[in-house]
Amino acid sequence: MDIDAFLAVRRPTWDRMDQLARRSRLSGAETDELIRLYQSAATDLSTVRSAAPDPDTVTRLSQSLARARATIAGRHEPAWRDITRFLMIALPAALYRIRWWTVAVTVVCVALAAVSAWWVATEPGVLDAMMTPEQQQEYVQNAFAEYYQPGAGFAGVVWTNNAWIAALCIGIGITGVGPAYILLSNALNIGAVAGLMATHDSLGVFFSLILPHGMLELTSVFVAGAAGLKLCWAWIVPGGRPRARALAEEGRALITVAIGLVLALFVSGMIEGFVTGSSLPAWLKILIGAVALAGFWAYTIVLGRRAVRAGETGDLSEDEAGYTVAVAG
Questions:
Q1: How far, in Å, CA of 268 to CA of 290, rounded?
Q2: What's the confidence (pLDDT) of residue 317?
Q3: Closest CA to 170 of 162, 161, 179
Q4: Which residues cross the membrane (predicted)?
Q5: pLDDT tens by residue, 259-312
Q6: What is the DSSP letter of 142?
Q7: Residue 207 near residue 264 (C-beta atoms within 8 A)
Q8: Residues 242, 222: contact at Cβ < 8 Å?
Q9: How far apart are CA 244 and CA 126, in angstroms?
């Protein structure tokens, strides 16, 4: 099929459909016309995809059809079923698909934190280079614990800050360097604090104040870093897809992860704001954090495996994202 000739003949019809679809109000006759044009354009899309799969034409026409369908069916606010689908299908599928990336990032970051803690605690002069002995005593005995002040305000600040870090990891993920730097900085800083506390025989205090919220909070940061690195990998190794298409598909799915992490970090923020600095026994606070982390992984693995087996990726549906053409290989 001569795609140029086909476009020359059919484009006026598509333009008319676009014109009607963009109107806020349609008469009865215009609604009937829009439905006829929609049906005709849907046939055109099928023809183009099978006979002359031009990516630009497929994308343009699929977007026009989506707009026309919204006008015909009536635009609506997201229904509860859309929220349910996001929470029960799209989000766990997106998290499940990057689970091994998350595990790898977690292992590397924990190892780096351990090395940082060991170096600070054993290498002569490192602590003195960080702060004076008086400052060390003040930090260990007062400042570290006083940071975790119970309250909604503190929880809100923590939640906002951590959500921003997670979004940044994903947003600059295509660079590869951005999320790696954020992960490295966090791992080394946490390790340095652990080394300082260990040197002053306060490692138990460190873990009792870090673990309750930190298990879920740090896991969320690791997930964000893994998502950012996965996006970079999709750009480097698109897997037989055009690079732009690979980035679009992975990017949309990973935006799903970013939204989900806002919810996970809200939970960790509530734990940090109301549990970590509370008067509860240390074992109970750590147990609460462990339950939250176990819930996150159960959600990811149980619901995510089911969704992925059903063909979900966390991306938008085909009609929402725009139809794509087949790629050889």
A1: 11
A2: 53
A3: 179
A4: 98-121, 163-184, 191-212, 218-239, 251-271, 283-302
A5: 899 999 999 999 998 999 888 999 999 999 999 999 999 999 999 999 999 988
A6: I
A7: no
A8: no
A9: 47
Helix axes 203-236, 152-171, angle to 10 degrees: 30
Length of the chain: 329
- Amino acid found at 58: V
Distance separating alpha carbons of residues 291 and 278, to the nearest angstrom? 17
Per-residue DSSP letter, 173: G
Q: Dump pLDDT digits (tens) for 139-168.
A: 999 888 888 877 777 778 888 888 888 888
What long-range pairs does 8-11 form, CB within 8 A, spacing at least 24? 10/44
Per the CB < 8 A criterion, the answer to whether 69 and 319 are in contact is: yes
Q: pLDDT band for position 1 (50/70/90)?
A: low
Residues 256-271, buried b or exposed e (16+ Cβ, 10 A)?
bbbebbeebbbbbbbb
Q: Of all residues in the chain, what percent carry a pLDDT higher than 90?
A: 43
Residue whose pair of structure tokens reads 């929880």 in the numeric block: 155
Domain boundaries, the chain: 3-73, 79-320
Cα 76 to the chain's mean position, in Å?
25
